[in-house]
Design goal:
five-stranded parallel β-sheet, 169 residues, 25% strand, 10% helix
Length: 169
């Protein structure tokens, strides 16, 4: 019931979106596509940027997405006292369609995760991820492509028969 009342707080929220009402979100900066599942213990925060999530995306439990950072460049001031932001301190995060983010993964500012990708449990994603890639580790690195070239072509053909992607290529 609480989920029903929280949905309008998002910048935009598609159909069939499931999340734990106890999760932490900066609702007004988050856009969710259709058929999104967010596991319990999520923390999605972007106070001065945006988090955009496409269609048919799955998040395991404990996933963190942070779209901002602190200004740590001020000489002679404690970091906690610095309130001014630089342009590079806050950057959007884009997660395209058909992505699976494993448990306790962390995705940081400025990252774009391409469609069809898999982020391994516990990964720290600091760089963008090419579509249909499997990444893992701290920091995350390419483990392998999700499909061979032939499989990828067949996969794309079959998906086109079903739906249109949320993001243009």
């Amino acid at each position: 019931m609480r989920r029903y009342f929280l949905r309008p707080l998002f910048q935009s929220c598609g159909d069939n979106v499931k999340f734990d009402p106890g999760d932490y979100f900066t609702y007004s900066t988050i856009t969710l596509g259709n058929d999104v599942y967010i596991g319990p213990g999520a923390h999605f925060s972007a106070s001065n940027s945006a988090i955009t999530i496409g269609n048919k995306v799955m998040f395991g439990p404990g996933v963190t997405i942070i779209g901002g950072d602190h200004n740590t460049a001020e000489v002679g001031r404690y970091m906690k006292d610095v309130k001014e932001k630089r342009p590079q301190d806050d950057q959007p995060v884009f997660i395209h369609d058909d992505v699976w983010v494993g448990a306790n993964a962390t995705i940081l500012k400025g990252v774009v995760i391409g469609s069809g990708s898999i982020i391994a449990a516990g990964a720290l994603v600091i760089d963008s991820v090419a579509e249909n890639s499997i990444v893992g580790g701290v920091p995350a690195r390419l483990l392998k492509p999700r499909f061979s070239k032939e499989q990828l072509q067949q996969h794309r053909t079959l998906l086109k028969q079903q739906t249109r992607p949320a993001f243009a290529k």
